[in-house]
């Protein structure tokens, strides 16, 4: 296989000629040769495009020993001769979880960690005007030196995000800053009256001697220039950091879902009157705080964080997601009325963070420091290599995603165990690094135990499943009140709560399900969320709550629900085709900008009880139920926007159930059919 880059370069460079010698970006996503390392026969390769994972089949079929080994990706390209004298980098957005790259048979770099971007400088190893062979050996094998160690999700192997070549001048905005853009927009102070920002720029000078340049920053509102600033910079050979500060009066604030306004910051580097490099980054100006008594505040106003968690996989493709997959996920969240997202349990695609910015969601981003989660393996191994890898992944996450205004919290750990080696000293190290890298954002963590590990980060959250794995939803409220009373200084949130549900499992009475069984009736999930939201919504000191999970996701070790290999706690099915009833419960509670009226239990089409209870979720004050055209009366919505009709009799055979709400000008209705079985 041979790929010639000349045609691609024409496309990449056209439109930038007027800006002179800017960096060139060339996609390398198409046409790779793939084989497993154990396939040693000559010429045994499959053609694949990126993103790609080799576990889309076995892991998602519920095979707990899915392939965790080494896969080889090979590609031959012709490098243009006129790239001589420039710097050539390859940038991977995500490879799970160890990548070793070889150029023309020589080792060019290694990266450890499956969820961050990284670059290798290929300049000295390329043959210009000739063919070059790239080989990337990828391993997703278990490794005690790399986060994560164990988790309730699949560790898909492969180059599962995009790859590109970046060609830059010897003097350029750095490509060596932990895989980041090289630009950090530090919001030193922001208010409704003014904003002060420092553009901190990492610059590389690979010319071999000192150089002079000009660094410019432009702030844009669409195509309109809001301000411009510049500074002469002296660049020693190697890497250096430079800063340009600017201020803005009466800034247009990024205000969450209400007004997710974004400026664009254009940072450019000039020599001898010509632009030699340019990077654009989003700038959403906002200020926020968390109060242990009153919760989360954005731009001085209280904001109840109504959140969900999200894993980065879906049916058929595993974690090798395309842009339209991310688009659909974000749109479904907005449809439900979400305003906060916990991106668990690792950094996710930069494209998805872009979407979070544009939708105005408050985001919790975290590293994959994951504990046993109910499993026998330990969550922390106190060895130097593991500790260093975690620090590296934390720095990567913060540097790469620093400029996203949606990110308001850096997550340090999830469900660690206190068995064996204590993780507390290491948590303290990570927390200090997070604040050193970014003094502007608070840290948080997700815990499921008591202990001193809960008192390290600025805020703390707990994973609670009251009413699913044990107890009742009322226990959640009691636990929250007790914890808040005992530790009034803590900023408390609920980082996970949820229950499994299959759309194929229906029952016409609400009976609690057994989590580890093959029977996960949908209506118990619905009841679980109604009762849990009752406890959460009435406690303003809870700074945020995050449903586990927005979507069903792959977990090969699970054997429960309607099929193996799936964690079915999602409010939406794994293929994104069906919104479960609990989805509409939250939509009725979280959205006032659209009319919501939804009849629950619509998939329970076969019923055995003649006398039934019906309920609807609505943001109207009342609704009227009709059964076979006969009114069962109007009923008012309760404080959770649930309307209930009890003791409703069905007729044998087919029954039409309809609910109507609104007035003459805004009438809405919803309906379905069900069948009452008759005795034989």
From TrEMBL:
**Keyword check for Protease:** no
Limits of the Glycosyl hydrolases family 2 sugar binding domain: 25-166
Domain Glycoside hydrolase family 2 catalytic per the UniProt entry, residue ranges = 294-584
The lineage's top-level taxon is Bacteria
Please provide the record's keywords in A-Z order.
Glycosidase, Hydrolase, Signal
Q: What region holds the Glycoside hydrolase family 2 immunoglobulin-like beta-sandwich domain? A: 189-286
Q: Can you give the residue ranges of the DUF4982 domain?
A: 614-661
Q: Which residues form the signal peptide?
A: 1-21
**Which processes are annotated in GO (biological process)?**
carbohydrate metabolic process
InterPro entries membership? Beta-gal/glucu_dom_sf, DUF4982, Galactose-bd-like_sf, GH, GH2_Domain-Containing, Glyco_hydro_2, Glyco_hydro_2_cat, Glyco_hydro_2_N
Give GO MF terms, alphabetically: hydrolase activity, hydrolyzing O-glycosyl compounds
Q: Pfam families of this UniProt entry?
A: DUF4982, Glyco_hydro_2, Glyco_hydro_2_C, Glyco_hydro_2_N
* Similarity remark: Belongs to the glycosyl hydrolase 2 family.
Q: What is this protein called?
A: DUF4982 domain-containing protein
């Amino acid at each position: 296989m041979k790929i010639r880059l000349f045609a691609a370069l024409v496309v990449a460079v056209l439109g930038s000629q007027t800006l002179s010698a800017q960096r060139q970006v060339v996609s390398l996503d198409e046409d790779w040769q793939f084989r497993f390392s154990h396939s040693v026969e000559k010429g045994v390769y499959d053609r694949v495009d990126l993103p790609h994972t080799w576990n889309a089949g076995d892991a998602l079929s519920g095979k707990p020993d899915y392939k965790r080994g080494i896969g080889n990706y090979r590609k031959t390209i012709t490098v243009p001769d006129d790239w001589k004298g420039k710097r050539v980098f390859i940038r991977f957005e995500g490879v799970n979880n160890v990548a070793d790259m070889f150029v023309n048979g020589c080792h060019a770099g290694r990266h450890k960690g499956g969820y961050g971007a990284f670059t290798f400088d290929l300049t000295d190893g390329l043959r210009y005007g000739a063919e070059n062979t790239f080989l990337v050996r990828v391993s997703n094998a278990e490794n005690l030196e790399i986060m994560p160690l164990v988790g309730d999700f699949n560790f898909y192997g492969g180059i599962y995000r995009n790859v590109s070549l970046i060609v830059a001048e010897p003097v350029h905005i750095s490509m060596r800053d932990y895989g980041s853009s090289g630009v950090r927009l530090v919001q030193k102070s922001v208010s409704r009256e003014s904003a002060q920002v420092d553009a901190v720029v990492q610059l590389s000078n690979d010319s071999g001697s000192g150089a002079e340049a000009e660094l410019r920053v432009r702030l844009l509102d669409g195509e309109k220039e809001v301000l411009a600033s510049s500074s002469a910079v002296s660049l020693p050979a190697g890497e250096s950091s430079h800063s340009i500060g600017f201020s803005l009066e009466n800034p247009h604030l990024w205000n969450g879902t209400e007004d997710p306004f974004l400026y664009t910051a254009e940072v450019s580097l000039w020599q001898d009157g010509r632009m030699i490099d340019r990077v654009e980054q989003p700038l959403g100006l906002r200020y926020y705080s968390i109060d242990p008594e009153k919760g989360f505040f954005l731009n001085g106003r209280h904001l109840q964080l109504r959140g969900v968690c999200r894993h980065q996989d879906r049916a058929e493709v595993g974690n090798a997601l395309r842009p339209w997959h991310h688009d659909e996920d974000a749109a479904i969240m907005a449809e439900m009325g979400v305003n906060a997202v916990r991106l668990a349990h690792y950094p996710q695609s930069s494209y998805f963070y872009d979407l979070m910015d544009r939708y105005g969601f408050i985001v919790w981003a975290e590293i994959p420091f994951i504990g046993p989660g109910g499993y026998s393996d330990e969550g922390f191994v106190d060895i130097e290599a593991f500790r260093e890898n975690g620090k590296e992944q934390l720095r990567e996450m913060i540097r790469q995603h620093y400029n996203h205004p949606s990110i308001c919290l850096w997550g340090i750990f999830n469900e660690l165990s206190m068995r064996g080696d204590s993780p507390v000293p290491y948590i303290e190290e990570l927390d200090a690094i997070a604040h050193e890298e970014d003094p502007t954002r608070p840290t948080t963590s997700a815990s499921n135990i008591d202990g001193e590990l809960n008192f390290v980060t600025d805020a703390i959250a707990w994973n609670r499943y009251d009413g699913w794995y044990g107890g009742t939803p009322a226990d959640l409220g009691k636990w929250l009140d007790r914890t808040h009373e005992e530790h009034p200084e803590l900023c408390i949130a609920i980082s996970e709560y949820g229950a499994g549900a299959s759309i194929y499992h229906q029952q016409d009475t609400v009976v609690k399900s057994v989590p580890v069984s093959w029977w996960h009736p949908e209506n118990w999930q619905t009841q679980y969320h109604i009762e849990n939201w009752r406890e959460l919504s009435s406690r303003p000191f809870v700074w945020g709550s995050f449903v586990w999970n927005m979507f069903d996701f792959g977990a090969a070790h699970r054997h429960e629900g309607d099929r193996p290999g799936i964690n079915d706690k999602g409010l939406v099915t794994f293929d994104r085709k069906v919104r479960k009833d609990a989805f509409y419960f939250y939509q009725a509670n979280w959205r006032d900008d659209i009319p919501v009226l939804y009849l629950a239990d619509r998939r329970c089409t076969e019923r055995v009880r003649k006398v039934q209870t019906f309920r609807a979720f609505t943001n109207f004050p009342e609704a009227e139920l009709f059964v076979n055209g006969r009114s069962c009366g109007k009923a008012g919505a309760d404080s959770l926007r649930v309307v209930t009709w009890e003791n409703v009799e069905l007729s044998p055979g087919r029954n039409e159930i309809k609910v109507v709400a609104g007035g003459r000008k805004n009438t809405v209705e919803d309906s379905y059919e069900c069948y009452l079985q008759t005795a034989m």
